[in-house]
Design brief:
This protein has 170 residues and is of the alpha+beta class. The protein folds into 2 domains: 2-75, Phospho-2-dehydro-3-deoxyheptonate aldolase, domain 1 (Alpha-Beta Plaits, 2-Layer Sandwich); 82-160, no CATH class. The chain contains 4 helices and 10 strands, in the order βαββαββββαβββα. The strands form 4 sheets. A 4-stranded antiparallel beta sheet has the order 2-3-1-4. A two-stranded antiparallel ribbon has the order 5-6. α3 crosses α4. It is elongated. The two termini are 34 Å apart. 14% of the residues are buried.
């Protein structure tokens, strides 16, 4: 639910809105755009939005049915940018390729793949450590040991090139 607040909202009206939100155990996040102020709430249960629409200081109330309400581009002022460090930024302004094996299975495999990725200029490397199979008790991949091997090989291979790419994140 998005509550569009009126401009120059008197404090007593805001307090009344906050009180109703509290009474219904609704947590709302303040969002200010270039021209308006909103309260964005993810509802856990069915709530009658008319309850808020009648309140003084509320310009309008919207029911949001998007799956990802807080990150939907409909309600954001600026596009998302993710800074991975070392000059690698994922955003709509740049094209990013993330590549690596579906399943890290051997040291030799990783050496070949990382060498090719570095040669191709790939800046974000990934690798699966648990690749599920049809049986819940079967998997491929080396688990945490695979991550350690991947990190070690990335550091070694990348340090040989002029690129500073591999980052190990927990």
């Amino acid at each position: 639910m998005i509550i569009h607040l009126e401009k120059n909202l008197p404090p007593q009206n805001r307090e009344a809105i906050d009180k109703i939100l509290q009474q219904h155990n609704i947590t709302a996040m303040d969002v200010t755009t270039q021209s308006n102020h909103y309260l964005v709430a993810v509802l856990n249960k069915e709530t009658d939005i008319r309850l808020f629409g009648k309140m003084p200081g509320v310009a309008d109330v919207y029911r949001v049915t998007d799956s990802y309400k807080l990150v939907s581009s409909k309600w954001k002022v600026h596009p998302t940018e993710i800074d991975l460090g070392d000059g690698v930024v994922i955003s709509e302004k740049s094209f990013s390729v993330m590549a690596g094996p579906c399943s890290i299975e051997s040291e030799e495999q990783i050496e070949k793949i990382v060498a090719q990725l570095v040669k191709s200029g790939v800046k974000i490397m990934r690798g699966g450590v648990y690749k599920p199979r049809s049986s819940p008790y079967a998997f491929r991949g080396l688990g945490i040991d695979g991550l350690k091997i991947f990190h070690r090989i990335c550091k070694r291979m990348v340090s040989k090139s002029s690129l500073r790419l591999c980052r190990f994140r927990k």
